[in-house]
Amino acid sequence: MPATRRRSAQTLVLRGSLVSLTRMCGKPTCHCAEGEPHITPALSYSLGGATRMLTLRPRDLRGVRAALARYQRAAAALEQQTQRSVASLRRRIAREKACARGGR
Known about the structure:
46% of the residues lie in helices and 22% in strands. The protein has a three-stranded antiparallel sheet with strand order 1-2-3, covered by helices on one side. It has helices spanning 3-10, 61-100, and strands at residues 17-23, 38-47, 50-55. The chain is elongated. By secondary structure, it is α+β, with helices and mostly antiparallel strands. It has two helices and three strands; from the N terminus they run αβββα. A hairpin with a 2-residue loop joins β2 and β3.
């Protein structure tokens, strides 16, 4: 894989879920005509309030899984930062209220 392609694949961050789509192609001689449907991996994600699907090739799965994991780690880190910020804001407000009441 070229270095530029490898670099861009490492920086993908995706929000969504991996799902498996099952379908029947309709060809009478296909194995799916006997009841074994085709299974296609897809990324399910929300955009503008609507759920979208992006079908994937098998070779895309590893990179997509890694990009979904990067999103989860980033979201968890942001949540931790938010909790620390709220706690800091609460302490500051409490100090300011205490000072306004008489300097406790």
